[in-house]
Amino acid sequence: MKFTLSEEQRDFAQALRDALKRSASWETLLALGVHEVESAPDLVVAFLELGRAAVPGPIVESFAVLREPRSTLAWPPHVPYVVDNADQVYAIVDDTKHRASIVEERTSVDPSRRLFTYDIGETVGPIDAEAFERGVLACSAQLVGLGRALIDRSRDYALQRSQFGKPIGSFQAVKHQLADAHVALELAEPLVFGAAVTMSRQDVSAARIAAGKAAYQAMRTALQVHGAIGYTAEFELSRWLLKVRALVTAWGTESWHRERLMATLCG
């Protein structure tokens, strides 16, 4: 299925991309109204760009799930720790929102995605029925955006880096790896938009599976193309690599989403 963005959506995506190139900050997101996005397709448009820019912080939890810019949450078992700290911290248990207090910071694969243990406090009330699906959907879009950024950067590096007197991008093995990763992302993105239209459990899980696999393939390809320098924490590429590593198991692992998808189809 082919999805065509409206002129307004294209303008929103371009405005986000341009602004985030200058500053991938919380203030930038608020100024562009990311916290006011209502529809699921618009949410996907936004999170594709947030992933492309590797925006730090609890963006899924704040902007997609809670829709409160200065809030964050934990939602065990799929989001077992509070992601970052904020003015308001919540824990979701049995689809009920509770206030929570930060206890201790834990080690995170992604330094820009801080994790904390927490204590549960008073009950606030039920969380809306689509909140979890919005979290999964936003994470899926973010993964596709991260994957696209990794492939774009790898392509540029392959055209600049020379070996045996030629750019490594001219070697067929490198071309094939980049092309395969690009195709995987091209196949995943329509599934994410399709899930945004239906917001059904099976479509959201299918999109999450495809997005996670495509982003992971892009990450592996980026490491192959960049070679040893891609493994260094000081190299800028690590911003995208580590974020993919952290998010491929966030908001439900691939195996959990496969089980949910099968249960939905066969139930």
From TrEMBL:
Residue span(s) of domain Acyl-CoA dehydrogenase/oxidase C-terminal: 130-263
KW Endoplasmic reticulum (keyword) present: no
Molecular function in Gene Ontology: acyl-CoA dehydrogenase activity
Highest taxon of the lineage: Bacteria
Keywords: FAD, Flavoprotein, Oxidoreductase
Database matches in Gene3D superfamilies: Butyryl-CoA Dehydrogenase, subunit A, domain 3 (1.20.140.10)
Protein's UniProt name: Acyl-CoA dehydrogenase-like protein
